[in-house]
Amino acid sequence: MKRITGTFIDEITWDIPSQNWGKEEWRKEFDTMKDIGIDTVIIIRAGLRDMAVYPSEVLGIKDVPDLALLFLDESERCGMRLFFGSYDTGNLEYRFERWQDCWQINKKLIPEIHKRYGEHPAFSGWYISPETCVATEGSLELYRRHSELMKELTPDKPVLISPYYPAWVYRNDTKEERHRKFVEDWHKIFTNVPSIDICAFQDGSCAFLTKGCTEPTIELEDYIKELHQLCAEVKVTLWNNVETFGRTYPIKFPPIDWRLLKRKMEITDPYVEKQITFEFSHFLSPNSTYLSARTLYRRYCEEIINV
Fold first, then answer.
1. Which pLDDT belongs to residue 213?
2. CB atoms within 10 A of CB 271
3. pLDDT at 196 > cutoff 90
4. ∠92-95-97 over CA atoms, to 5°?
5. Does residue 235 sit in helix, strand or coil?
6. Of 63, 72, 185, 202, which has the highest C-beta tally within 10 A?
7. What phi and psi values does residue 172 have, to the nearest 5 degrees?
8. Superfamily designation of domain 4-305
């Protein structure tokens, strides 16, 4: 079974706590990631609302540390490649009806990111931060404009997205209808937005199929098989975003049960080129503020790394 070789870095946090790490803690974390075989890190967002991962003229947020440069430098030191995320307004929802608000910021911010960091040796790709699950006018426009600008600035660097499965959107449909709509939606997105190079669906979002679902892998293999076929057809590289947090608990969000993590990896592994995760540092790292992340790390090492 493939190891997890990529992870998001969520330092501009949305719904998980900040670990308040500085340079020393992040250096230790990058060493840990290197030791476990991680070769790719993804800054999940350059900014969110009034927060930013570097001092930004575009956002008007200047009195913040340059974490982006820290992550790039650590990536270079550890021989990793870094994908740089865009800005998220935090008010898009899945239909992206307010996509223009996000675009008006990112059409200035993406060039600023490129100007500041584009020549850094570790800068290896882009990540479009807003997440969707279906094809709408807003999702098509936002994906197209963001990816085209990224490709214009760096034609040789891939563009990554990490959507979620539309299980809860289509929960009242039959299974057959649900999967027909899923394939049609994503065929429409991929064929209308050819600048997307890599797609890594969030595997835990299958848990939204029914309210209070206790079987997070329900229909996961159906979805990943359909994606495997579709991505081969449209020439998009397929990764899996294996979530290392649990969605089916009454709190947000604890590290996942090891048995479920292993089962998700076993289901998706035959169909994808790479396993990445949201998110190593909080939910799988021995350095995490969560005690159960440290024991999850031990179980992962015992069975996947064989140490």
1. 55
2. 18
3. yes
4. 60
5. coil
6. 72
7. -90, -5
8. Glycosidases (3.20.20.80)
CA distance linking residue 147 with residue 127, whole number of Å: 9
Element (H, E) at 219: none
Which of residues 49 and 75 earns the better pLDDT score?
75
- Find all residues with CB under 8 Å of 140, minimum gap 6, and list them: 188, 189, 192, 193
The two structure tokens encoding residue 270: 């035959």
- Structural domain spans, the chain: 4-305
User: What percent of the chain is predicted at pLDDT more than 90?
Assistant: 84
Q: Mean pLDDT, to the nearest integer, of 248-272?
A: 92
Q: Rg of the chain over CA atoms, in angstroms?
A: 18
Element (H, E) at 264: helix 258-268
Distance CA 300, CA 62 (A): 40
Judging by DSSP bridges, how do beta strands 237-241 and 198-202 pair with one another? parallel
Checking if the pLDDT of 248 tops 90, the result is no
Tell me how far apart the alpha carbons of residues 301 and 76 are, in angstroms, rounded to a whole number.
Answer: 25
In this predicted model, what pLDDT tens digit does every residue of 52-62 receive, in sequence order? Answer: 999 999 999 99
Phi-psi region of 212 (alpha: psi -120 to 50; beta: other; left: phi over 0): left
The CA distance from 183 to 223, in Å, is: 9
The 10 Å CB-count burial string (b at 16+, else e) for 173-207 is eeeeebbebbeebbeebbeebebbbbbbbbbbbbb
Residue 207 has pLDDT above 80, yes or no: no
